[in-house]
Design brief:
By secondary structure, the chain is α+β, with helices and mostly antiparallel strands. It has a single domain, classed as 3-Layer(aba) Sandwich (Glutaredoxin), CATH 3.40.30. It contains 8 helices and 4 strands; from the N terminus they run E-H-E-H-H-H-H-H-H-E-E-H. The chain has a 4-stranded mixed sheet with strand order 2-1-3-4, sandwiched between helices. A hairpin with a 2-residue loop joins strand 3 and strand 4. The protein is globular and about 45 Å long. The N and C termini lie far apart (50 Å).
């Protein structure tokens, strides 16, 4: 019996950040593609590393996010939703990157990825708080295939500082960031069939894949909003 051949577009690697609106839209589109059989390898990075911020910086970060969301809305497909509950502040995502790396190492990356994106964009959850992250993703990590006992036995996604618990996750965080810098250091970045597609172009390319495959089954319609 002949082995079914997968096209290059059925294997997509993406780098994104949980509080980046372009990455959010890219993630939503990759969810539809994954349901259609596309292999999605999502690697997250903190594209704006943590630093001390003053009151003016906090306001500027919040305003910048809002302005960027308005740009994203202009790139939605007809009827495509973009859930957005404006957060009270924009957290740095080092801790969320660590938690996701633990999930990736444990083989539960997709549900945790969904939880982290939705928690921030729909509920305004502070993804920079290690205590919140532990509670958010514990159920997925409990009993997982992680080789770290604190992860699979107690569901610990991050340590008290927001760093990785296991060595495997620590290496993932380091390697993802190194790889991301090599491919240009922009979120989101897509690698597919030997091509590198970055930023808005990457988001639009994913949208074209969704459109061309006839995927329009937008989920949770009662909670989502279409572009005006």
């Amino acid at each position: 019996m002949a082995t079914e051949q997968r096209s290059a577009d059925d294997r997509i690697t993406v780098w994104g950040d949980f509080t980046c609106p372009w990455s959010h839209l890219a993630w939503r589109r990759t969810e539809l593609l994954a349901d259609d059989g596309v292999e999605i390898d999502w690697r997250t990075v903190e594209h704006e590393p943590w630093r001390h911020v003053g009151p003016a910086d906090v306001i500027a970060r919040h305003r910048s996010l809002h302005d960027e969301v308005q740009q994203v809305l202009g790139h939605l497909l007809p009827g495509e939703p973009f859930p957005y509950a404006p957060p009270t502040h924009v957290p740095f995502t080092g801790a969320a990157t660590s938690a996701y790396a633990e999930a990736y190492a444990a083989g539960v990356d997709r549900p945790v990825r969904r939880t982290l994106f939705r928690s921030f964009w729909e509920d305004g959850t502070d993804l920079g708080d290690a205590r919140i992250l532990r509670e958010l993703v514990a159920d997925e990590l409990l009993g997982s295939s992680s080789t770290s006992e604190p992860v699979w036995r107690w569901g610990l996604a991050v340590d008290v500082t927001g760093g990785p618990v296991s060595g495997a996750a620590w290496h993932l965080v380091r390697d993802w960031r190194s790889q991301w810098r090599e491919v240009g250091g922009t979120v989101p970045t897509v690698l597919v069939g030997g091509r590198r597609i970055v930023g808005v172009e990457a988001v639009d390319w994913l949208g074209a894949q969704v459109r061309d495959r006839g995927l329009a089954a937008w989920d949770d319609p009662q909670r989502e909003h279409s572009a005006a």
